[in-house]
Model the fold of this input.
Amino acid sequence: MRFKKVLIIVLAITLLFGLIAGCNRGGEIEDAIIRDAIERNEVKPYAYPESTVSAEQLRGMLNQPNLTIIDTRDRNIYEQGHIPGAICFSPKSLSDPNRRGRFTTPKIFSLTIREYGVNSTDHIVVYSDNYSHARLWFFLNMYGLNVQILEGGLDQWLANGYEIEAGRVRRTYLGKFNLTDVQPKVRAIIETVNVAAALENPEENVIIDARSPEEYSGRGHIPGAVNISWELLINEDQTFKTVTDLEKIFVDKNVTLDKQVIVYCDDASRASYVYFVLDKLLGYNNVKVYDGFYLYWATEKPLLKGAY
Done:
């Protein structure tokens, strides 16, 4: 009798350890599946992955006749080394000379960029070593042009060991570029009066200050605006973070899909970067850029200093 009890206890213990081992094994298998999915890029794809182009993809496109690569870095830095064939275009050309921080008119922009030999029908890829290219992407995207952002910028191009060239690329012909009579395909700019109205309804609106925490708290921000700096959205290698990581950053600040999202900075460059992530990578469908912050709000309406 005693032998039977001992046998039963031994069997029970054996079964218990078997179940534990099985669970552990199951966890290991599940972890392996997740790791494999990550390696095969099967975890939450970007909403519009075609909005970016990898360094490898761009290198394979270099001989396309209608390709225009635009480098928005400072010209002196650009001339030291850039992607072969890339032209240098200053983001300052996007600014209205009479309205600080605001986008220029389609007519002025068209007259400027055609001097670089750029056609409005070109396949355009923009890049830099920070966020400056996002402003150009925003403007071109607003008018429905075929424009992509180089994932990881010049850092990724160099990390892949791809060639660069020095000097300046000059196209000897005038481009065919005319947005004078073209209406924006995307209504993505918001005016001061609408921003003020949005503040009255925080349940349906959220405002993002895309500047640094130091600028946000020290120089002052729109009351109620949350601070999400562009650096938070990228990895150390300058590539965009995963959808899961990006979603957490925004949701933690109460930036959710059901709200109108308004983004601003000083000259709309960093705001355009945040706009790109929300609109193209996460699929937010109601995002606006407030490019009149310094011209209107900062000079005529109250700012709040300190952390929000």
The radius of gyration is 25 Å. The chain is about 40% helix and 10% strand. The chain has a mean pLDDT of 88.
